[in-house]
Amino acid sequence: KIRKLIEDSPSFRCQTSGGTRSLRITASIGIASVSVAKSTEGNKLLKAALQALRQARFKGGNQVCVFDPVP
What was the pLDDT predicted at 17? Predict the structure, then answer.
């Protein structure tokens, strides 16, 4: 819902030396989670979220990807 809300928001306007420009904002989001039963280091969880974010960007951006560990 957050990504869609950002995508559907009106364009932002900014002043440049050449005049006013409209900017369209989108979001790529990477998600990772850990089960309460599992103990994991915060660093590993952050790296997993970053990997999911890279995947979202690689797929063209403006989407949400969830970390999927290789079994």
Answer: 86
pTM: 0.68
How far is 49 from 32, CA to CA, in rounded Å? 5
* Residue stretches of the chain with pLDDT short of 70: 35-40, 70-71
Q: What is the DSSP string of 5-71?
A: HHHHSPPEEEEETTEEEEE-----EEE----TTS---HHHHHHHHHHHHHHHHHTTSSSEEE-----
Selection from 46, 11, 48 nearest residue 26 by Cα: 11
> How far apart, in whole angstroms, are the C-alpha atoms of residue 34 and residue 40?
7
> Residue 13's pLDDT is what?
79
